[in-house]
Design goal:
It is a single chain. Strand 2 and strand 3 form a beta hairpin. Strands 1, 2, 3, 4, 6, 7, 8, 9, 10 and 12 form a 10-stranded antiparallel beta sheet that branches. Strands 5-11 form a two-stranded antiparallel sheet. It has 264 residues and is mostly beta strands. Helix content is 14%, strand content 40%. The radius of gyration is 28 Å and the shape is globular. The chain starts with a helix and ends with a strand.
Length: 264
Amino acid sequence: MSRSTIKVTLSLVALATATTVTQAQTAASAPKAPPPSAYDKWEDSVKAPCDWLTWGADIRVRDEYMPNVLSLSDASHVSDQNVVRFRGRVWASVTPVTNVSVNARLSAEPRYFTVPASFGPYGRPAATVPPTTPRDGMEWRYGIFDNLNVKWNNIGEQPLALTVGRQDIMLGDFYDWWLVSDGTPNDGSWTFFLDSARLNFEAKEIKTKFDLIYICQTAHPDEWMPTLGETHYSDPPKYLGTDYNLTEQNEQGAVVYVSNKSVK
């Protein structure tokens, strides 16, 4: 063996030894996750007070300011529109038996018009109402169960799940949903649900998911189940388009969806 070959061999051995030691030191010195704080433990105990119940709540405040949408003249009654949307939700999931859960979510979104509105999805003055008196002030709307379903997991000891009832279905990666996402477009981003039955099978060995879905959607929010409050703005109607329809018409459909992630 030549002297140069010996030098190369020793260099490679030294490099391999140094790399191994460095990796071991890095693993040993990697910071451990801090133990949960007293607040974290309290929060977990509140959200999951017992083995068969979890619950939660949230609130979203959104200000939609639309200046000069239909007119560039400040004197026009359709020059500006500003509405503040207060969406509050509370939900719970109950597991009465293993692999079976009952899930519900109640949602409401009252809206406050800080600038009188007279066009677009918030309604227009009726023909008998002068355009100088557009919709204004607080609009309480109604409360709705935007989730109410039963889910059965691990059917037949297989990676098979069945969900029946009102549920959110968004097919695809987060924020990259295509075709199936918002079943209630007319209420804005208040709700997204689909009244449906969904059968899902996950083949982990080939990184593939199979979905079979039947959808039966209604336009009126209180057609399948009652709402908390009226589903129209006023009675008799004060504005055109005052029924709070979720979509333009009753709809039915079926979806077969296959998603494979074996290729990066």
